[in-house]
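If your schedule permits, I should be very grateful for your opinion on a structural question. The matter concerns a single protein, recorded as an amino acid sequence and a row of backbone structure tokens. Could you please explain, in whatever detail you think fit, how the structure tokens follow from the sequence? I set the record out below, with my sincere thanks for your time.

——
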Amino acid sequence: AMAQAALGAAGLHFDELNKLRVLEPEVAAQTAQLREECRAFVDQTAQFQKIVGSLIELVDQLAKAAESEKMKAIGARNLLKSIAKQREAQEQQLQALIAEKKMQLERYRIEYENLCKIEADQNEFIDQFIFQK
């Protein structure tokens, strides 16, 4: 015990296997425990980095998908606008055609009225000619 105290004063200690150590057994145990806690902390940090990395990757994929859907929506909207413009142009063409056909119909109606008048005049002339004989 006296030798152990003298060694302890010199900063030397025996461990549980009776090996000579520079650290006190209690300090050595605390150091080992701290080393284990540090290893566990480093492992957890690495795991956390992996989780964060995969989360960032997922967010990037979602952002790309959202951008792609946005582009599709813009394309669809532009297509609808151009279809609407085409329809408008077609409608204007049809309106012009209708107006043209109405004018043609009016010309034909007037021509028909004139022909009816001529026919009536000719029938009247024929009737008079027959009656004169």
About this structure: Helices lie at 2-9, 25-132. The CA atoms of residues 39 and 78 lie 58 Å apart.
